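note to self — DONT lose this again. spent like an hour looking for the file last time. sequence + predicted structure for the chain T wanted, 245 res
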Amino acid sequence: MRAWEVIERAAAPDGTELVLARRGDEWEVGAGGKTLMNTRMHASEESLASVTLKIVPDARRVLVGGLGLGFTLRATLDLLPADASVVLAELSPAIVAWNQRYVGHFAGDPLRDPRVELRVGDVRQRLLEGRGEFDAVLLDVDNGPTAMVQEDNAKLYGDTGIRECLASLRTGGLLAVWSASPDDRYLARLSNAAGHAEAKIVRAHRGRGVQHVIFLAMKLPPERRRTEERRRPDEGRRSRYDRRR
């Protein structure tokens, strides 16, 4: 099998080494020796957009946290109308540069879409700036709530970070978070903050292969939140994993 060829290296804001590599027609980005994203395996990133926008089909203002190889952003754009807008928050300037120079064509060069507002920096800052602004917030900035690219990202998945995410949504808006694996503690925190949360199991490849998880929490109006909490008094606000694919 052909060996991986390192194309470029860069440092993440916390000093973690990012590596862009290719093997034939396949490209990947790694951090700290672990693969973060790959052009061969991206169906679950696309599902992050399709699951979200099926639940909030009238979305017009969306925040996508994490550019990666651009597949989540592309799927989001493909499902939104021409008058919609997407804020793309990406922490690493190198990831943006690599997308523009090397790998953007794999996802149809989503950064060139005029509906995209690119913000290079911490997605938490953009969340704090956008109180009640977004119809949906899609987060794909780590391999999961406990598998962070950089340690400072842990703040995004704690109680305060979850409240910041929900506060950035309009009532009826949806928070969706991609993860490489289940995380019951994070699901419980989401449910405690929102009144109800769930997790959907999706495939990394189309219809087969590795399973990933999408966590979902809607910003409910107060009266509906109280109804949801009363509906499950014996569950202690625990939520389920939906394994339909």
